[in-house]
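Reopening this ticket.

The earlier resolution said the output was attached, but the attachment link was broken on my side. Pasting everything inline this time so it's all in one place.
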Amino acid sequence: MSIKRISQIPGGPPALGPYSPAVVVGNFVFVSGQTPWSPEMHGIHRGTIAEQTALTLANLDKVLKAAGTDRNHVVSCRIFLSELTPETFREMNKIYQAFFGDHKPARTTIGCQLLGMDVEIDAIAVLPEKA
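Inline output:
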């Protein structure tokens, strides 16, 4: 089975370490943790949880597109929040729900220590079937 590493994300965040933003194995796309990286700032945007979640999901969209898929083919997400409280969960969840709409991937939300940001999201998607 071939492995394809996606390293160039047009308009998206650069890999800031020894990893690939996405790896395609067979029909699966494994997306590394995306952050609230702002193309205008060329760095992490430290806004509200809602703002950080929106930027993080926008970056997820860019990586999915570069890998040949989209949000409607995401099967699982892990969300990491630096401060997991009912308020931060509610703020993140409102943006997440609007992003995915009726498409509901499997999901886990984890409270953890993040460096320089409050939200990180990774995902597993599948490639669309070719007609």
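Reporter confirms the inline version is readable. The domain at 3-126 is CATH 3.30.1330.40 (60s Ribosomal Protein L30; Chain: A;). Helices lie at 49-67, 86-100.
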